[in-house]
Write a structure and sequence with these properties.
The structure holds 2 protein chains of 2 kinds. By secondary structure, chain A is of the alpha/beta class. Chain A has 13 helices and 11 strands. Chain A has a 9-stranded mixed beta sheet, with helices on both faces. In chain A, strands 5-6 form a two-stranded antiparallel sheet. Chain A is globular, with a radius of gyration of 19 Å. The relative contact order of chain A is 0.20. In chain B, the strands form 5 sheets. In chain B, strands 5-4-6-7-1-8-13-12-11 form a 9-stranded mixed beta sheet, sandwiched between helices. Chain B has a 5-stranded antiparallel beta sheet with strand order 20-19-18-21-22. Chain B has a 3-stranded mixed beta sheet with strand order 3-2-14. The chains are: A alpha/beta, B alpha+beta. Chains A and B meet through helix 4, strand 5 and helix 7 of A and helix 12, strand 18, strand 19, strand 20 and strand 21 of B.
């Protein structure tokens, strides 16, 4: 990777807030933003006026800096809206951290939010396509199903074995979600329920797909050297990486759907920035972008947590369970939270933050040191990926 | 002298057993046989394109200087359809493209006009293509007898497989079949009157006059491709002229395809040419508000153009529609509960216009540096990042296989699931398509595929066309 650049240990998180995720029929996006930021300020023991600059991550629920300034009545400070698909929230956080690391500000706010349940549609609102509409009809589950069918055939899994492998992922995440009062879906599911559920896009059934929900999460960051002034247990930023795919998979016949190169690239860069040599051993826990169960499986391999083609063994052995070696989605993941696009990245950070501070209640892991979050915006053939690492 | 240099045909993959229609309506019309039904993403334009592609196999497309598109069922009342056909076929810019519409004789009208243009030396090589998707009102006899299909001919003065020997036409102002600007379905007058005043009177009259003009007797005709609303009327007419029904008449495909309107005599002529030997004398007769007769004699060239899918292959390769409801949905005959998905995007006309050469004909580029084909056209090569260093590359007829697929139940479709296919081309390049004309069960990684021109969206009166992939038909 050449010389390692980055901002490791230069910025700290001193406050976070996260709403319950779900179908908030009774709350507007402004309510959600307000509640997440209010809780983050309380957590940091700060007031709105202490925030010097802010970044908002949203996909379709807001358009410019006013999306924060208006509900929070921020007083003429700089506010920027960031959009980077499912990595929007993570990218807003990254921008806030960079502003602090650059010395431009001492205290910044990052908010991820999305209000999807006002649309009335199944799945996500309109997908981006060519203005000529000379384009195949395709949905997110339809495109991620390509990943599953190809993975199964490449690694010689029978349809039954493949369905079971990805099904166990959903069973695990649903279980974790039952322990989390902020999760949208809070019930156990059995492997039989998962495998027999109605098919959305084969082999992805209902329980292989994350839901659609509303939510918001917020983080307040400051210079690392001043963090202890605000709280005894700040959490430090170890790596902030984004990798964006030039839509190669749509055009290149050598892309085989069983990997996401942007995840590989962002992961390698993040490990370099954080000084991690062996992620399987050194990462304590992870929140990965489980928009679909197969995505989590492939991401574990792309992030070098599991060997290529071997994630099945780790899934079956419970390696990723709450009591496993490297718990994945300790909070229940997109599977339990649903996926309000811009909010998800910051929600993932929130869980890592709670775990690192020992405040994750029934989900609390033993002495976690490093937490990794991953967002995959887009589809297997074309995407934008974030990998963030925070720790003590 | 003008002649037919090539032919092609298209019959949609899907057939509906007439018993299914009869069952739906309580057994009122026990009519035997089946009808060909255009897929949910097909219309007269896409079927004409398919027939034209069949016809142009092995033909240098740059030679085509006119394109006539004939149909009573153009998707547009106002707007040229031939330009869409020409765009899909990638024909040259100085093409004279025109539509023949309205009449059931539109197909033979276009054929005759092409012959006249070549004879008059106004054109050198005219592509005539005709597609029909006529609708009979539900619960009526036309719904049972109508079918969908298309045919295409290349008319030229050189390299002909059949020389035109004569042509004859009469017209008769007559409300036999009609569909006004306010109608969705074809109407007609009472059967006994139109049979006697129309078909059984006009057809023998026109054929007799044409044969007399060419100094031919009925026995001189090897095969006659005569438009026929049903086989009974054709037998009646044949008797009057003196044709021997079994040996001299081309099957009007009533039992297998149905009445394809303006396309029917052209499709029947294709069927005749498929079986013809050099020196055969063929007749093509169009009917509707009058009668068109064309007489031709095949040359040695007939053997050279038999590499077409034509009628035979398209007749054989078929799938049955399981029930009448599916037909109703495909033809949009019933308003249904909309899917809980966002409505179709706004279609930008400037974006369509920018895409008129590339998208409509599935023309991408090949990088001159690394030689990799890619679609849609890029400014920077996806492989080697070379800038603005491309040559055009046509994907439509390149060998392709399926690399990955899924069946998407969430996508809004008249015919779910939506099959998404990552298609890789033998010389490199990938395009993600929807797959059509497939049974989900038959879709397998590695299967060979072909590209088909289909309607992909409809928005605010704009029919938007692009390409899909499909299992190799035959």
């Amino acid at each position: 990777m050449g010389s390692v650049k980055g901002i490791r240990d230069k910025v700290a998180i001193i406050g976070m807030g996260c709403t319950k995720f779900g179908e908030h029929w009774d709350k507007s996006k402004n309510d959600l933003i307000y509640e997440a930021v209010r809780d983050a300020l309380i957590d940091a023991k700060l007031e709105t006026k202490d925030i010097e600059a802010a970044w908002a991550g949203t996909w379709v629920s807001g358009f410019d800096g006013r999306c924060l300034a208006d509900p929070l009545k921020l007083q003429y400070i700089p506010v920027t809206r960031v959009e980077n698909a499912c990595a929007s929230g993570s990218d807003a956080f990254r921008n806030a951290c960079y502003a602090v690391a650059a010395g431009a500000y001492d205290i910044c706010l990052a908010v991820g939010f999305e209000k999807l349940k006002d649309s009335g549609w199944s799945g996500l609102p309109d997908q981006q396509s060519l203005p000529s509409n000379r384009y195949p009809d395709r949905t997110a589950p339809g495109m991620f199903a390509l990943m599953a069918t190809t993975y199964f055939s490449k690694y010689k899994l029978s349809p039954e074995e493949g369905k079971r492998m990805i099904g166990l992922i959903s069973v695990k995440s649903h279980h974790n979600g039952t322990l989390n009062p902020r999760a949208h879906l809070r019930r156990e599911v059995t492997i039989e329920q998962v495998m027999n559920a109605p098919i959305v896009a084969w082999p992805l059934g209902l329980f292989d797909c994350c839901g659609v929900s509303d939510g918001a999460a917020a983080a307040i960051v400051c210079r690392a050297d001043m963090a202890k002034k605000y709280r005894p247990d700040p959490v430090y930023v170890k790596a902030l990486q984004i990798s964006v795919c030039p839509s190669e998979g749509e055009l290149r016949a050598d892309y085989d759907f069983t990997t996401v190169k942007a995840t590989v690239r962002a992961g390698e860069a993040a490990y370099a920035e954080a000084g991690i040599k062996n992620p399987r051993e050194e990462i304590s826990m992870a929140e990965l972008h489980d928009c679909f169960s197969i995505t989590e499986a492939v991401t574990c391999e792309d992030l070098k947590i599991s060997p290529k083609g071997k994630v099945k063994q780790d899934i079956e052995s419970g390696f990723f369970n709450l009591d496993g070696k490297l718990p994945v989605q300790p909070d229940g993941g997109l599977k339990s939270f649903g996926h309000p696009i811009g909010a998800s990245g910051v929600r993932m950070l929130f869980e890592m933050y709670l775990q690192l501070q020992g405040k994750a209640d029934k989900r609390q892991l033993k002495n976690p040191k490093l937490g990794l979050t991953h967002n995959l915006g887009g589809i297997p053939v074309s995407n934008t990926v974030s990998v963030l690492i925070i720790g003590l | 002298m003008a002649g037919i240099a090539s032919y092609g045909a298209y019959i949609p993959l899907y057939r509906l057993n007439r018993a299914e229609i009869n069952k739906a309506w309580g057994g009122m019309f026990p009519v035997p046989g089946e009808k060909a039904v255009a897929g949910h993403d097909e219309d007269s334009i896409t079927m004409a394109v398919a027939a034209a592609r069949d016809c142009l196999k092995g033909v240098d497309r740059s030679k085509v200087d006119r394109l006539y598109f004939a149909s009573t069922t153009s998707p547009y009342k106002e707007k040229l359809a031939a330009s869409i056909v020409a765009g899909a076929l990638g024909l040259r810019r100085d093409l004279y493209a025109m539509d023949f519409a309205g009449s059931l004789r539109a197909g033979t009208n276009a054929l005759r006009a092409a012959i006249d243009a070549v004879d008059a030396k106004a054109a050198k090589c005219v592509l005539v293509t005709c597609g029909e998707t006529r609708l009979g009102a539900p619960k009526g006899d036309k719904e049972i007898t109508f079918g969908d299909g298309a045919a295409a001919f290349l008319i030229s003065s050189t390299g002909v497989a059949a020389n035109i020997e004569g042509s004859y036409a009469i017209f008769q102002e007559f409300h036999e079949n009609w569909r006004s600007d306010k109608d969705t379905f074809v109407r007609s007058w009472e059967e006994r009157f139109i049979r006697e005043a129309g078909y059984t009177k006009l057809v023998p009259e026109a054929i007799g006059a044409a044969m007399k003009q060419c100094k031919l007797a009925a026995a001189d005709i090897t095969k006659a491709a005569i438009f026929a609303p049903d086989p009974r009327l054709l037998a009646n007419v044949a008797g009057k002229i003196g044709f021997e029904p079994f040996s001299q008449l081309v099957d009007p495909m009533f039992m297998t395809v149905g009445n394809t309107g303006a396309a029917l005599p052209l499709m029947m002529l294709v069927a005749a040419m498929e079986d013809a030997k050099a020196g055969d004398r063929l007749m093509c007769v169009g009917y509707g508000d009058g009668c068109d007769v064309l007489i031709m004699k095949t040359t040695e060239g007939i053997e050279k153009i038999k590499d077409k899918r034509g009628i035979k292959c398209h007749l054989e390769a078929k799938k049955m529609i399981p029930n009448y409801m599916k037909y109703v949905l495909w033809r949009g005959l019933m308003e249904t509960d909309p899917p809980p998905r966002p409505p179709i995007n706004h279609i930008s006309v400037p974006a369509l216009w920018r895409d008129r050469e590339w998208g409509l004909s599935l023309t991408g580029q090949r990088c001159k540096s690394c030689k990799t084909p890619q679609y849609p056209p890029q400014r920077v090569c996806v492989i080697c990042q070379a800038q603005d260093n491309f040559e055009p590359y046509h994907f439509t007829d390149v060998k392709a296989t399926l690399t990955s697929f899924s069946h998407d139940n969430l996508a809004a479709s008249i015919d779910p699931p939506t099959t998404i296919a990552a298609v890789d081309f033998v010389e490199g390049g990938r395009i993600i398509f929807n797959m059509t004309d497939r049974d989900p069960e038959e879709v397998k990684t590695g299967m060979p595929l072909e590209m088909v021109f289909r309607q992909v969206h409809y928005w605010e009166g704009i029919h938007n066309y692009w390409w899909k992939c499909a299992p190799i038909r035959c």
